[in-house]
Amino acid sequence: MTLKGTRFHQQIVAIAEDYLGPSGPRFIDRLAENHLGKPTTRLTPADLNEIVKWARLAAAMLTDDAALVAEFMARLEELSSSKRPGKRLAIPPARQSLA
After folding, report:
1. In this structure, are residues 33 and 39 in contact, taking their beta carbons and an 8 Å threshold?
2. pLDDT tens, 58-83?
């Protein structure tokens, strides 16, 4: 996981890596810079709705597996609550990741 950015950024990247592998950090960094117009060092929980919006759109372009995209977004959305983000659900081998 990348160490740059805020703790919030690191949490988002950890989730993205579960679905995108080593491309997760770049996916989130580019999303923040290109769609939110801010460096990852300035990401906060207030940005979560926009992050999820853009991540959903991008992830849907990478796969036809709507359930996998929904799971990815649900885990990101959990960052807005007081509970810790859940672990990735068991997924059949054919649906292991977006990467």
Report:
1. yes
2. 999 999 999 999 999 999 999 987 55
SS3 at position 79: helix
Taking the C-alpha atoms of 6, 28, 18 and 15 in order, what is their torsion angle to the nearest 10 degrees? 40
Which of 14, 3, 72 has the alpha carbon at shortest distance from 41?
3
User: 56 vs 8, 76, 77, CA distance in Å?
Assistant: 18, 10, 11
Q: What is the C-alpha separation between 38 and 29, in angstroms, rounded?
A: 9
- Written as one letter, the residue type at 85 is P
pLDDT digit string (tens) for 8-25?
999 999 999 999 999 999
Residue 83 contacts residue 57 (beta carbons within 8 Å): no
Q: Is the pTM of this model over 0.90?
A: no
